[in-house]
Amino acid sequence: MAQKQWAGTTYGSGGLHKSLIWTLRYIDVRFLYLFASIFVVPVCLILNDSRRTAYRYFRDRHGYGRIRAAWATYINHCKFAQVVIDKFAMYAGKKFEVEVIGMDRFNELASKDEGFLHLSSHIGNYEIAGYTLVSERKTINAVVYAHEKASVMENRNNMFTKTNIRMITLRQDMSHLFEIDQALCNGDIVSFPTDRFMGQAKCVECTFLGKTAKFPQGPFSVATMRGLDVLAVNVMKTGLVKYRIYVTPLQYDKEAPRREQLRQLSRAYVAELEKRVLEYPEQWYNFFDFWN
User: Fold this and answer.
1) C-alpha pair distances (Å), 243 with each of 98, 183, 279
2) What pTM value is reported for the model?
3) How far, rounded to the nearest angstrom, does the alpha carbon of residue 81 sit from its chain's CA centroid?
4) Boundary-marking domain end, from 42, 62, 91
């Protein structure tokens, strides 16, 4: 399970992040895209093991040939660089064209008294959902990792407070569970990442892209303990400055035994995740052996 743990930290120092935000106030993001694809990504491919895991992902999970897998690995890293640039561009005040598919379902659940869950993974650019899926009636509580850079957390806070979003940091002492419980008791929304582990978390096993993979059980347990409605939310980059948000209800039998509910919900989520990954294979950003 150790290979699935993640530091939860954006690369770079606080000073570098601030410089990037300042720069993005005055230049087009597409200039940085070009710079990253020519000068940054090739160096990263040489120095980082991410090239190996990405290459195996395209070879083994998508069945690409050697040349196609190598090219897809390069494009995958370029798109990841663009997503990181876009995140800081938003901190700098830049706007992107965003299309939402399924907004009616989000609004329907947001109008009810009961809370509900968002489930997401490290594909596309989920953070954009925090500036687009906004509810006046409910606070969205985004579960995030505790060890993120202070500069990133500060900018997230500055942006999120404008859209009625607060962050709940995952902590080793498990105190975040009380905040999650309180948010749901208040009838609010909780957003979970579902593809990264912290510590020795319990897992569920599902067939994903043709091979068994482990997913953290926590988000599915929270939903089934309370019989909550659940939305899968995936934000995919569809153009240089365009994104599409897919909001998909996940169905499971809330009257079934608890173990069966966990099985149904986890498989419903993984099926939706697989659908998006097959549609956007180069926007998979788990740079470790996810299936190990």
Assistant:
1) 5, 29, 14
2) 0.91
3) 15
4) 91
